[in-house]
Amino acid sequence: MKKISLLKWSYVALALVLGTAAHAQPADKEMPKGFDVARTDIAHGRIDSVQYASKTVGVNRKALVYTPPGFSKKKKYPVLYLLHGIGGDEKEWLRSGNPQVILDNLYAQNKLEPMIVVMPNGRAMKDDRAVGNVFDKDKVEAFYTFEKDLLNDLIPYVEKTYPALKDREHRAIAGLSMGGGQSLNFGLGNLNKFAWVGGFSSAPNTRLPQELVPDPEAARKQLKLLWISCGDADGLIPFSKRTHDYLYQHNVPHVYYVESGGHDFKVWKNGLYMFSQFLFKPVDVASLNKYTVLGTPASTNIRSGKYPQILPDNRVVFRLKAPNAQKVQVDLGKKYDMVKDTAGVWTVTTDSISRGIHYYALVIDDVAVADPGSETIYGAGRMMSAIEIPDRDGAFYELKDVPHGDVRIKRYYSKPLNAWREMYVYTPPGYDQNTSQKYPVLYLLHGGGEDERGWSKQGKTDLILDNLIAAGKAKPMLVVMMDGNVPNAGGLAGFNENVLKTFENELKGAVVPFVESSFRVDADAKSRALAGLSMGGLQTLYAGIKNTSMFSNLGVFSSGWFANNPKLSDPQYAFMKDNASTINSNLKHFWISEGGKEDIAHQNGQIMLKKFDDMGIKYEYSEYAGGHSWPVWRHDLYMFAPLLFQ
């Protein structure tokens, strides 16, 4: 009796282990080779062809229905609706995708929750054959009509004919290409009907992200899983990426899965293999950003450059072919050793990188060079490679469908410096059309190691202003991005009042006169503002405070007089104390910001503000966490510009 009891408990333990496995998320990240080949040594599901009455179309329509191994009418099952592409029909998956084989093999490994899979014809019209020109208007419109057919005819038929669970938590929809767009449109548009939604290589019929998910909070609450996948060589990948970008920005959990491949069944079979393993089980949302094979090429890559790639968790994959190199590293502030394969290709995956733009270099045999796959930017005093990491809070500098201004490169001769100089000037939408209108001007200064290109390239000034102006949050204005570097400055160690005075002379004696003679601007104090970041903040504190009769608005981003350099700082405080009343009356806004305690300027800034308080200098203060970085300064401009010229 004891041996029988032990044997019985062994079977119970095995059942518990297998049951637990059936509720686990996929351990692998890609379908193994040969997994779509039928096996004779396992149990198989069944595929039936069915017909249902469609009141939407007015005819009986066909679908295929897969029931899992061991199917029993005494048990209730969840249902996956699996849709085809624009050139297919209800048999496309069966002909080219072997879905029954993939599912059978997954069941054999106890990786699936038993489910019914329905493969309908997504072309909801009387003659729904995939013949003739499948792009004809009426045939394309039939794919949109299918939403009504699905909801009102097919689902009721399935749930009446089969032992199907009828709640949204047990209903999923997924598809390839046109069917991927349908799945996203219908699933996300009917979250009261579907809790599991998957789009494989979704086609241009996919609605705009803000139409797909108009209420991100509701989507977060109702979705069990949202899956978006595509091949990296698929020309339709922008439709998947724009949806992913929107979901990322609005913090809607989802899988964004990119793999090697084009618009083909290799990708779509893998999509089914991966997606199906999540269905109708508890989902570990925190792990979803790990499910991908490849990353997304960074927006800062050169045209058609595949690397660097950003993974969904903001780790970065770098790759370089250098077969004769002995040692290669990526220097992102922290150095990462790259590993060479037999083809001479060096690869490394970094830790998760913080949001915004980062300068970096490749270090090849101890020589720092720019990455040939990435755009280069002037920063840190030299041309550097740069990579832009997505920012959830970065919608304010997105390229949007709004009127856009121009960034103009203007060269001028500076008498104070006796040299030719260059500035970048943003002119707002309508500047060339509204020839009788004059505009206010914001003079915007860069930081140390950068130049007049910084605010345009790294700062995305034009996009920030375009979006603010389009939303009615900022007045149309010119933004002058001048070169704040002056001759013989000597770097930080040589940063003294003479250098600041030289800058002031350049600003007053060359830049402002050139702008006011070359552009239609209002030439008075109430229509001028001056702002800058870091070094540009010190220049603003110096030239702006000494000329409040010339500038009515000042912005100081991540800056402050040096607490350890009284020779420079004390005269500035003395001037402010003696002129506190004039400063307060002349300045409409004296706006000061820091990037939180991690900002290297934070301590100096706090000491400076305490002195302002003691002197009675009026100011407005803002903090935006992010340190001494471009995400902070972009946000500073976004906050400061709406205050101006109102």
From TrEMBL:
SUPFAM superfamilies, sorted: alpha/beta-Hydrolases, E set domains
Segments traversing the membrane: none
Keywords associated with the record: Signal
Highest taxon of source: Bacteria
InterPro entries: AB_hydrolase_fold, Esterase-like, Ig-like_fold, Ig_E-set, Mycobacterial_A85_antigen
Signal among keywords: yes
An example Gene Ontology molecular-function term: acyltransferase activity, transferring groups other than amino-acyl groups
Keyword flag Signal: yes
Signal peptide, first to last residue: 1-24
Pfam families from the UniProt entry: Esterase (PF00756)
Name of this chain's protein: Enterochelin esterase-like enzyme
